[in-house]
Structures are given as structure tokens and as C-alpha cells.
Amino acid sequence: MICLKFFDSKLMKFINNNLRYLQTIMSTTKPTIPKGMRDFGSQVMFRRNYIFETVKRAFECYGYAPIETPTMENIQTLTGKYGDEGDRLIFKVLNSGDYLSKATLDENTTSKSLTKQIVEKALRYDLTVPFARFVVQNRNDITFPFKRYQMQNVWRADRPQKGRYREFYQCDADVIGTDSLLCEVELVQLYDDVFTKLNIPNVDIYINNRKVLSGMVELMGASDLFDDVVIALDKLDKIGIDKVKEEMESKGVKKEALSILDTFLNTTNVGDLSSLLENSATGKKGLEELQFVINSVNNLGLQSANLIFDITLARGLNYYTGCILEVKANDVAIGSIGGGGRYDDLTSIFGLKDVSGVGISFGIDRIYIVMEELGLFPDNIDVSTKVMFANFGEQEAAFCLPLLKQLRSAGISSELYPKKSKMKKQMSYANNKCVQFVIMVGEDEMESGILSIKNMESGEQSNLNITDLIKELS
Amino acid sequence: MICLKFFDSKLMKFINNNLRYLQTIMSTTKPTIPKGMRDFGSQVMFRRNYIFETVKRAFECYGYAPIETPTMENIQTLTGKYGDEGDRLIFKVLNSGDYLSKATLDENTTSKSLTKQIVEKALRYDLTVPFARFVVQNRNDITFPFKRYQMQNVWRADRPQKGRYREFYQCDADVIGTDSLLCEVELVQLYDDVFTKLNIPNVDIYINNRKVLSGMVELMGASDLFDDVVIALDKLDKIGIDKVKEEMESKGVKKEALSILDTFLNTTNVGDLSSLLENSATGKKGLEELQFVINSVNNLGLQSANLIFDITLARGLNYYTGCILEVKANDVAIGSIGGGGRYDDLTSIFGLKDVSGVGISFGIDRIYIVMEELGLFPDNIDVSTKVMFANFGEQEAAFCLPLLKQLRSAGISSELYPKKSKMKKQMSYANNKCVQFVIMVGEDEMESGILSIKNMESGEQSNLNITDLIKELS
Question: Do B80 and B148 share a domain, yes or no?
Fold first, then answer.
């Protein structure tokens, strides 16, 4: 629908008749990309790769091996796994070819009923469900416990806002096929290691245990309302304690149970839970797990992050059954930059029962924002070309080519400006590309083999032959 | 539609009424992925990453900087750029929400007419068109000449077959914003460099020039049939010269022109083109370009690949205007493993005229097949964990944790088996994961601090304290 401030019936008719043509012109003159999606230019790419590489090296150092799953999954693999809201946000891929020939259309056809007939595939919504599908499908080839990492993009048809995109990356590490709490200990260390290497200060890793929450809800006499209580509790940060209680009551939690809730919420010391949970077997089990993880981590010591027990930490996803984790960078207000937990039965949705796993996720896009706001990216990571030969003409260029080849053979990133141009233009190219050294080769240099080298940062000029230059730069 | 070999109306009714439920059961018991798509397990990932890393390092060494574009483009960015066949093969993403509310359905609705109403986005079909869109959209922030590389997946709804998938990777390097032939020279060197580093033998880089072909077609008196002649010529490998000529004649090429074609096709020496193209200005220009590139490359010398002039090389894509390249690995029959060329006006489809560019592409999935068939992957690339501590119980594990931390701090990839289990099980885990050293810590080792270390390859046993072990492995 096009709305114009003035009304001109002839123009309106022209526009309506030529809508597609006009759209083509528009798209020709100013191409755009879909909302919530991003182009990454080179500087951003260098910085993103720096984060990815750091996380990847840590994953591999801890014995996690990479896997990748396809961008598209069969739609039934994804639907029903993320709640109704999630199902709505899954991007669906139209069947190829004459898809309507197999569909029935009538006056009752709705978007929902049509989708079932014309869509068989959908885009990855997270890495966890495809991972569970992968494990079940490949269970005969996998040696358990299986430590895998996965760094891939996911898509959600969410309303875009700051730090929330429709295409973004997740970096997950999971161990599946063991209930050993040493995995939880390791994953906390892994968080600490990565954030230490990235130099992000004031990182808090919050820890809680779903069984402790379960015990609490049991003591509140609201075990059948566990999901509701957890969902309400998860909103504490956003809506405050009064609203949380209101929501719980509206779901059926009794008023007297809320004082038990208060007692728990006032607990900041894990030890104090011991007496509180005395009468809940599940709660005691959870407390044991919690204490083992916290004590082990404390004995080993963390490098820069803090591990903090937080009874209010609930995590919305309902497949968590044990330890739960969430990470915040206190110096930037952006919400959590990581989270995870133990799931005792995730693969059962694909028919493989009793396989316990635990995993954590790094929110790369938010980590990027934190590092950018705090100015934490090292200086030298966006250097692409180290050495550039200026171009003074065909003969000079021909002279430079074998030298360029020698530099590249030595692994020194280098290039020759492709065409003779004004020096100013060539130098500005070098500047924009953060080139560190510009080599000027004219008649004298061609005769002597001694190159004039300009250090672009200090402005210093030096003279070296190619062998010495390579030695200098290697 | 379900077809059964026997007919049972009750069963049929049950099936129809419970279709979704049955599908859920089916999907529960045996999850699958869409056809033409792949899961990559860890061993394959290590090998793929080895190729990606090699290509990436070469790209950066030659001064190319990375960019990435989103998975989805507005559909009008993609349609009309790859021919009718291409348009058909583009994967389309259904609009989110109640998309039908904005569509008009009636008895005349076809798949094609409906698609226009319910689809605004589509998946990347190659890297070239999104790159052109990127350049035009960001032209004010880009310093030209712009040397970029891009390594991303693309999607095509093609019929899957060996070496052809519906999701696959492309690795492209392009220079845009200069017509300097030094770029062509550099890209040939880049091909040679990558295939040398990957150790792929017998690689031939075929080269031709569209202007030379243009000159030939001009002399055949068929300039207005250039596209038809090139498309027919492109099939020479597959259908043979007689069929190629037949096709040309059917398109309107005169019989007497075909003898000129023969003369050209019998030319294997670039020099011989000189007299043939005497009367075509375009042809002579093309020949000059061709000779400059071939001579420059020959002067510099290639490391392992051969550069071969091939007048029959045509390349189907019609945006090429100068030098064209195609790469084959002679030892494996899989078709081309790379290709590229110069395009003088690609960005004009998005409204930016007169920007010449040239680029090459690496077919990663096919390179993988070549390397696998020839056994070229180095031995050590699928090692994830170098050192594993066996687990003999809680106390032993607790003793190992600080040692594990020290190893990891030294950058040595290591892990502790997460739970006490039978030694056989732990050793088989270590074997499957290609672990190089297994450390056994029992009572004696805890007392002395001297660790028992088993070299999994040689079977040798040694005894070292942690400091010496780290020295040994660093």
C-alpha cells in the first residue's frame, strides 16, 4: 500500500501499474539488506575473528572437538522445542518448485494451515536442539562422553533491537553422556579462561541448581507449579519481587508459601541452604552438587572471574535439571553474555533416553559490544597488509613482483599497489588499510637493490635490501 | 498422500486422522536432516578447517581482507542475476507472522504468483552478487581498489549428487576498483600458492580471455550471437565438438564460420592468435591482456601448478569480460576445483557503473574430495586432545585437577576422563579421540608427584613430574 501526501489520480495509477518496475529502480539505486541482519566489514571481521579464535582455542585446549550441523533442519525437528513463542520466531523455508500443486487452498486456508503444506524445512533456531538431533542420529559413531563445540549462526524472526539481531552467532561447548560434576567445574574454568584471555574485567559467573529450586518449590507446597514458579522467578531482575510474587499467586501459589520463598531469596550463603533444605531429598541432592562445584572451583582458583551463588538464578529453558550458570560483565549494561546448565534428558525428544549432558554458550555478539565499549580489542588485530610496494610505473612494478613473492613466501602479508597513481592516493590507501611499511622503488632502488622503506606509524625512513627486510619483519 | 500396498479403510482413516502424531513418532525414532545437507563430525571438521585455514592464511598474506554478508538477502537482490534456472534454485524464506493476511488468493493463484506475495527474503546463492551489493551499499566507506575475501556457505535447491550439495561453501578473493592486470597475475599466483600448500599435485590452471573469444566470434561474423556461441563452447568437454557445432548452427551461426572456429580451436599457442586476430580490435586487446598475464606469471615462476592457455575455456557466467580462469586437479575426476575471471561492470546491476573487478573462487567441498581420495590430509590435524588423565576415583581426580590446569595454562590441549570407569573403557575413549598421552595417577603417583605417562602411539611408558612433562610437550 502506498500513501502519498497529495493525491494525483494519474500518478497513483502510474505507480500502481508500474509497482514492480519502481521497486526495481529503487532497489537498483540503493540496495539494502533485510532488517535485523548485518554486513560485516573487514575491521569488524578482524575483531569478530579475534573473539572466535580465542574461544575456539580455549574449547580445543579443554578437549572439545568441533562439529557443524546444516543451516536447515526438517521443520518437525525444530517445532515444539522452544515453546509457542519460539515456534512463531522460527524462519521457515518455502518448498522448492511448484509447491502449491501439492497443497489444498480454500476459503478456510490460514497462514498456519498453509505453512504445514508448503514448508518442510526451517532455519536453525539455536545450537542445542540440532546438537541433540546430531547425537541421536549419529549415536553409533560417537564415543561417549562426547565433548563437542559448535560455533554457528542461528536465526530468529524477533523484533530487532540493540544487541538483538535476526541472524547471530552462538558458540557452545557441551559434554554429553556423563553426569560427572567435574564437567560443571571444567565449564566454569572455561568461562573464566576465555574472559581472562579476552581481558574482560569484572565478570561474574552466577551459579544455581535446578534441584535446589525444586526443593524450595517442594517446601513451598507448589511442586506441581514448578515451571510457573521458575518462569516468574526468572523475571525478578526485570519486574521486581512484588510482581514476581503477584505472578506466582495468580498461578496458584499460596500466600503462606511466599514467606518460604522470602527465606530462600535472602540466602546468599550456600551453607545456609543446608538446614532450609533438610526435608527435601531433591533439594539436598542439588545442594550437594552445588557445593561440590563451588568448592572444587574455589580450590582450583579462578584467574579473573568470580563465581557467585545466586538462588534467584532460574534460567527460563525447561530442559535444565541440575547446575545452571549465567555470566554477566558488570562494566557494560547489556544483560548476560553467556549461560548454560545441565540437562538430564534432552536427547529423549529424539528417542534416546537417559543421556545426561551439560553445556555452556558464549554470546559472541554481546561480547563484541562489551569489548568495543571498553576498548579491549588489541591494536594489531585489524592489520591485514603489513607491507605495501608503491607503484611508480610498469617497469618498477615488474621489478617489485619477485620481491613481493619473496615477502609472501616468508609469510609476510604484502601487496603491490595495482596501478601507477598519485602518491597521495597510494598513501591514503595504505593508511586506510593500516599498512605498516610502504616500500618505494624508483630508478635508484632498482639499480642498487636497496629499498626505501617508510614506517607508516613512526614516519621513519630506512634503507634495506630484501633479505634484510625479511629478517627484520619475520 | 500416503499409498499403501494393501487397502484397509479403517487403518487408512486412522492414519489420516493421526498424520501429525505419526510423523512425530517417526521423527522421534529416527531423526534425519534435509536431503543434500550434511552434518560434519569432528574428524571432517578438523580436515575442513585445515583447508579453510590454509586458504585464509594465503588470502591474508596476499593482502585480502575478510568481509561477511548476511545469510538472507532481499529477494530482489538475487532474482534475475543467475538466469531462469538460477531463479528456480534460490531457496526462499517465508515471511514471518500471518503472511497470508496481506496476500490475495483465488482460483488463479499459482506457486509463482503466491511466492511474490509471501516471500521477501531468500538465501545467498553465491558470494559474488552479495559482494557486488555490499560494494555498492558501502561504497562511501570502502577504499578502492578493494581487496576482499569471503568464505561462507551458499544454498541451491539443486538435485543432490556426488560432490554437489544443497548447502556448500565458497571461498572467494576479489579485487574491485582497478583494471590492472597485475591482479590477474596475483590471483594465478594465489591459486598456485594454495594448491602447493595443500600439497595437491598436477594442478592445471586454464586461462583464456573473453575478449579473445569476442574477437573470434566477430571474425565468425556472429557477434550478435556471442552468448549462444560461448554457451555452446562451454559444453565442449561434455558433448564434443560435433554437437557444439550443431548447437551453434541451430542458433544461427553460418556453416562457413565454423571453419574459422576450427582454426581457433586448433590453436594451443597464444602467439599464433596474433595473426588470427589481426582484424579484430577487441580480439587484439584480449590477446595483449592474455600475453601480459601469461608472460608475467612465467617470469615469476609457479611453485607446482601449470598455467595453460585454453581457447576452449569459455565460462558460462555472462558477467565476465576479460581474463577467465578455471582450475582442475588432474589426479581426481571431479571437474573444476576453482574458477574466476574479470568482470567490468558487475556492480552496475546495483547502480554503480564502471567499476572493474576480478576474482577467483575455491571449491572447498571438491578440494576436500580430492585431498581425501589422494590421502593428502596431514596426520596430526585431527588431534583434539593431546593429554588425558585417566580417572581412578574421586581423590585421584581431585589430585589431577590442578595438574590439568597447569597443562592447559601452557596451551597443551588436555582433559580428565570425567568419571571413574573400567580402564578398558577409558583407553578406548582415548584411542577414539587420538589422544597422544594418557597419564595414570594412583596412590604412588600422588605421593611422589611423578606421573606415569603412556605414549599411545608407541606404547612407551615414562615417568615425569608435571613441570618436566610440560617442558617435553611445549
Answer: yes
Instruction: Report if residue A109 sits inside a domain.
Output: no
* CATH number for A465: 3.40.50.800
- Is the residue at A32 inside a domain? no
Interface predicted TM-score (ipTM) of this complex, two decimals: 0.89
Domain of residue A415, residue span? 387-473
* Residues in B 241-280 with any Cβ partner in A closer than 8 A: none
Tell me: the pLDDT tens digits for B177-208? 999 999 999 999 999 999 999 999 999 999 99
A246, A346: one domain: yes
Q: Is A390 left (phi over 0), alpha (psi -120 to 50) or beta?
A: beta
Strands (E), B89-186: 92-94, 119-123, 146-155, 167-176
Q: CA-CA distance, B251 to B249, in Å (whole number)?
A: 5
Q: For testing the chain A interface, which of B85, B120, B185, B384 should be mutated: the one with the most A CBs within 10 Å?
A: B384
Number of domains chain A contains: 2
B433 is a domain residue: yes
Cα–Cα distances (Å) from A425 to A98, A422, B354, in that order, read 53, 5, 19
Given an 8 Å threshold on Cβ–Cβ distance, is A70 in contact with B137?
no
Q: What is the pLDDT of residues B424-452, one digit of tens each?
A: 999 999 999 999 999 999 999 999 999 99
Strand A146-155, strand A65-66: pairing: parallel
**Is B18 part of any domain?**
no
Are B144 and B180 a contacting pair, CB within 8 Å?
no
In a shared domain, residues B138 and B177: yes
- B40:A68 CB<8 A: yes
